[in-house]
Specification:
- The strands form eight sheets. This protein has a ten-stranded mixed sheet.
- The termini are far apart.
- Helix 5 packs across helix 7.
- It is of the alpha+beta class.
- It has three domains: about 400 residues, 3-Layer(aba) Sandwich (Collagenase (Catalytic Domain)), CATH 3.40.390.10; about 190 residues, Jelly Rolls (Sandwich); about 80 residues, Immunoglobulin-like (Sandwich), CATH 2.60.40.
- Pfam families: CUB, Por_Secre_tail, Reprolysin_5.
- This is CUB domain-containing protein.
- Keywords: Disulfide bond, Signal.
Length: about 725
């Protein structure tokens, strides 16, 4: 009885009563006597089989190009797609779908707007199987798609990725893939903010709002799509049709708003998905979409990560997916769809189904992730779905042999309801996928006085007006002021005390845009020496969901700001500090810091002597933050600070630079041009030297002190001297 009871509970957790939206539309069209003309674009063949045993069982076929062209020319509103598979003919009833939002555009690293000839996208069900789901995409000379059912699991149809191949196709169930699918999602576990509101039974069957998506594709995806912007875009829209279909079947409306393709080597690299996520945010702090995702083919199977759970209408609306174009020559559409939709599911509001967040009592829906070694929370392990059933999209059931994830299961009732609740409560979303309300504030310039700060912002999506609110850091925004220019000056500030400003565009649609909140402080006189801490000060922790920016500019002429950290402790791989060599975030990036690795001493080498620090924390854990001292050093030309009889030689040098003076020298420091301290030592006497032999050839900054006087100079290291 216990086994039967467990199975019944699991079946009740799956969305059989909600998994009929696509089927209902097919039935509506049939009842309206809409014709479903038959198309048979594939002719069954006997192989040859793909090498390497990537799939244990597959159907091979040849493309009937005239039949494909007939479909492209006629573009009927509905079709009956006939596919050969294992000695039978599958009939898929499909209706036309629109995956692109109005105003969709394609950009690359060299062009802001690339013309795009869109294909035809369809979705539907297997004839006679109303709990199945299917989506197919048709382009000039090619088509692809996925059919999911209890019997077939996820049946992938696509062109084999063989060099020069245009007509050899494969149809295979991803249950027959022999390679291990080790995708692991690194999204943070939700905190206590997931309360009883998330444990309701379904009360909303269809979203009234639309979530638009921005996708950025790395250079490897471009190369593997034949170095073609059109092919890469076709691949992305094909994948998204499958993603959109699965969301639509659970009542959630989505559309692609824009894409960006790297046609030259992209700037992303790292050893973890967090590395790519953080770099994506630095490279693309805002984008044309309600949510954004970097999609790439990266080494070591990094999996995916969303910056938070339930990130709509917030600065935490981005994710990363490491995907596969194919397994050897076998197209990997279903695997790619799973990775991408899983991370979007987090941003839309759902945690993992094996976590202790469900059923109204903080228990698990299934036990797939826990049984595979990835538990979340302290609750009993949930049941493992039987082989014939499979897991849902937000599960880890792909890690359990013989179970897998079946798209016909969708998200499941509870995950779908959490996402519907979050979508419907997100006031920045449009109701038509057209009149979007996106906050395009991408960067800030801070101009500090002693008691004033002027914040100027860059908005890549809007030209104004904006609404602005200002408050001390620990107080709430109480009123909003409309401004027509992208600048706001806060007055009456106490130096080195934190304040915050909220900025949002005024949207013509009446939607309320997400707020871009900035924490800042009037910096005071940096050259007189000040303390730089997080918002928790020396004794407390910083806050969740924080965007903090501080610019330190020298208040003495011809001087350079130097910041020395005595402690540093932020959440590793989730909270980040970015340091820029100048007065704002358009300056060169010195470094990105996370965890408890102390940044040490950082010296500005910018023309104005400034340093800018940006700190971002996520929605989860907060730690003690940092403590740093801020001061200035003075270059050679500052007459008030020169050291009597000072000289240095040789310059350039192959190894050692020698320093002499008429005053007793006390310390010597060497920095690289990005401001990082490389060498520091105390000296005593009229002579000192710095050994640069272990340094790479280049330019370095040397700072020498003699009592209260200081000299700074640039030295060229050249091993040829």
């Amino acid at each position: 009885m216990k086994k039967k009871f467990t199975l019944v509970l699991l079946l009740l957790a799956l969305p059989f009563n909600a998994q009929q939206k696509i089927a209902a539309e097919v039935n509506r069209l049939i009842a309206a006597k809409i014709q479903f003309p038959e198309f048979s674009p594939l002719i069954a063949t006997n192989g040859p089989a793909v090498p390497g045993g990537v799939v244990s069982e597959a159907q091979y076929a040849a493309l009937n190009k005239s039949e494909l062209n007939r479909l492209l020319v006629s573009a009927p509103p509905a079709i009956a797609l006939e596919l050969p598979y294992q000695g039978e003919t599958l009939t898929i009833l499909l209706y036309k779908a629109e995956v692109l939002a109005e105003g969709f555009h394609v950009a690359t690293d060299s062009e802001d707007s690339v013309p795009y000839e869109k294909g035809l996208h369809y979705r539907g069900i297997i004839k006679g199987d109303e709990v199945s789901i299917a989506s197919f995409n048709f382009f000039r000379g090619e088509f692809n798609g996925i059919v999911s059912s209890k019997r077939l699991n996820n049946l992938v149809t696509g062109r084999l990725l063989e060099e020069g191949n245009t007509n050899r196709y494969i149809l295979y169930s991803d249950a027959n893939v022999t390679l291990p699918l080790q995708f692991k999602c690194n999204a943070p576990e939700p905190g206590t903010h997931f309360g009883t509101q998330w444990n309701r039974q379904p009360d909303n069957v269809q979203s009234n709002r639309c979530v638009t998506v921005y996708f950025e594709m790395d250079h490897d995806l471009y190369l593997q799509n034949g170095s073609s912007v059109a092919n890469t875009t076709n691949w992305m829209t094909s994948v998204f049709n499958n993603v959109q279909t699965l969301f639509a079947n659970d009542g959630i409306t989505t559309a692609i708003k824009s894409t960006f393709i790297w046609t030259t080597p992209d700037p992303y690299e790292g050893e973890s998905s967090f590395d790519y996520l953080g770099q994506f945010h630095v490279q693309r702090p805002v984008f044309d979409g309600d949510v954004g995702q970097l999609v790439g083919i990266d080494p070591e199977g990094l999996g995916g990560v969303a910056v938070t759970i339930a990130g709509l209408c917030s600065p935490f609306n981005f994710s990363y997916s490491d995907v596969e174009l194919g397994f050897s020559t076998v197209p990997a559409y279903s695997w790619t769809v799973q990775v991408i939709i899983h991370e979007l599911g987090h941003l839309f509001g759902s945690p993992h189904t094996h976590g202790c967040y469900w059923n109204g009592n903080n228990t698990a829906i299934d036990g797939c992730g826990s049984s595979a070694g990835f538990p979340e929370g302290n609750c009993p392990q949930g049941p493992i779905p039987p082989t014939l059933l499979g897991g849902t999209i937000m599960s880890y059931c792909h890690l359990v042999p013989g179970v897998g994830i079946n798209f016909a299961n969708g998200f499941g009732i509870q995950p779908a309801q959490r996402m519907l609740n979050h979508v419907e409560s997100s006031g920045c979303l449009s109701t038509d996928c057209i009149n979007t309300c996106i906050n395009g504030v991408a960067g800030f310039t801070i101009t500090n006085g002693i008691n004033t700060t002027t914040v100027t912002w860059t908005d890549v999506s809007n030209t104004g007006p904006w609404e602005v609110s200002f408050a001390p850091f620990n107080e709430a925004f109480t009123s909003w002021q409309q401004v027509n220019t992208n600048s706001y000056t806060a007055t009456g500030l106490t130096p080195n005390v934190y304040y915050k400003i909220g900025i949002r565009p005024v949207c013509s649609s009446g939607a309320i845009a997400p707020v871009q909140e900035l924490t800042f402080a009037a910096s005071g006189n940096a050259c007189d020496g000040i303390t730089f801490t997080d918002t928790g000060g020396l004794a407390g922790n910083y806050s969740n969901e924080q965007y903090l920016q501080r610019t330190f500019s020298p208040n003495a002429p011809n001087s350079l700001v130097v910041v020395t950290f005595s402690s540093f402790n932020i959440e590793e791989d989730f909270d980040f500090m970015y340091v820029y060599n100048g007065a704002d975030t358009t300056a060169p990036l010195i470094g990105v810091f996370t965890g408890n690795v102390n940044p040490g001493t950082i010296l500005s080498s910018a023309a104005d002597g400034s340093l800018t620090f940006v700190f971002r924390s996520d929605i989860g854990l907060t730690l003690s933050g940092w403590d740093a001292s801020v001061t200035c050093i003075f270059p050679l030309s500052t007459e008030d600070n020169i050291i009597a009889g000072f000289s240095y030689y040789p310059n350039p040098t192959g190894s050692t630079v020698n320093i002499t003076s008429a005053e007793e020298l006390t310390s010597l420091s060497v920095y690289n041009v990005t401001g990082q301290l490389l060498l520091q030592k105390d000296v005593a006497g009229l002579h000192a030297s710095a050994d640069l032999s272990s340094f790479a050839d280049g330019i370095y900054i040397v700072a020498v002190k003699a009592g209260n006087s200081q000299e700074t100079f640039r030295i060229i290291k050249n091993s040829g001297f």
